[in-house]
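2024-03-11 09:14:02 INFO worker-7 job=invfold-0412 stage=load source=structure_tokens
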């Protein structure tokens, strides 16, 4: 009897051990982690601009951004400008670039004495980055019979070759420095504003020494701000 009882005890013990071992060998179910909420990034209002929707974008932009006066600050003095409402796309574009501080990364890169001073470009990476971001878009001309290349006129630069539609560069502009104006450029470049003060600053910049490509030997940095 003792042997039989001992056998039964040993048998039951081995069964329990065997069950425990099987439990340990069973795979553990992975813990289910709660799903992370996907946060949708909201694009900034200007991120929709690209080379395919220029006119539509600035038509809407100019309705909410009515400013017409800006100031260009340089080491040689300030230049105040008034932008025209009857060239709405060019006006809105200039305000847009001012608000995203594009011009603050650029210089007056061309000084043609007794003709124009030209700005809005740079060999710095930050300026190029903005151009690439928006696809180097172009703008249709907004020629107006009453907007001529008089002294102090603000106009959009453009490529002359392979540009039969006379599309404007949105990034580069020039100011007529010649007292007699530059009327041979009428209906060739869009005039979209004029100087209202800072004539002496224009003259100072026009007298700077330049290289053979009319780029000033000392960079004329600018900072453009909205006035009204």
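2024-03-11 09:14:09 INFO worker-7 stage=emit residues=228
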């Amino acid at each position: 009897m003792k042997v039989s009882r001992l056998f039964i005890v040993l048998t039951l013990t081995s069964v329990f051990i065997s069950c425990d071992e099987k439990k340990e060998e069973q795979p553990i179910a992975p813990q289910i982690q709660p799903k992370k909420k996907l946060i949708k990034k909201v694009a900034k209002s200007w991120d929709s601009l690209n080379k395919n929707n220029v006119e539509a974008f600035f038509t809407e932009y100019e309705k909410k951004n009515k400013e017409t006066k800006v100031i260009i600050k340089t080491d040689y003095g300030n230049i105040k400008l008034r932008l025209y409402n009857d060239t709405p796309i060019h006006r809105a574009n200039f305000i847009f670039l001012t608000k995203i501080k594009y011009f603050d990364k650029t210089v007056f890169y061309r000084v043609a004495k007794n003709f124009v001073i030209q700005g809005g470009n740079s060999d710095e990476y930050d300026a190029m980055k903005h151009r690439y971001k928006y696809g180097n878009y172009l703008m249709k001309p907004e020629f107006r019979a009453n907007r001529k290349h008089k002294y102090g006129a603000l106009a959009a630069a453009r490529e002359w070759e392979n540009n039969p539609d006379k599309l404007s560069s949105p990034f580069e502009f020039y100011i007529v420095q010649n007292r007699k104006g530059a009327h041979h450029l009428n209906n060739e470049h869009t005039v979209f504003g004029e100087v209202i003060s800072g004539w002496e600053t224009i003259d100072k910049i026009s007298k700077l020494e330049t290289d053979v490509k009319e780029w000033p030997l000392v960079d004329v940095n600018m900072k453009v701000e909205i006035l009204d």
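2024-03-11 09:14:09 INFO worker-7 stage=report msg="The first strand starts at residue 69 and ends at 74."
2024-03-11 09:14:10 INFO worker-7 job finished
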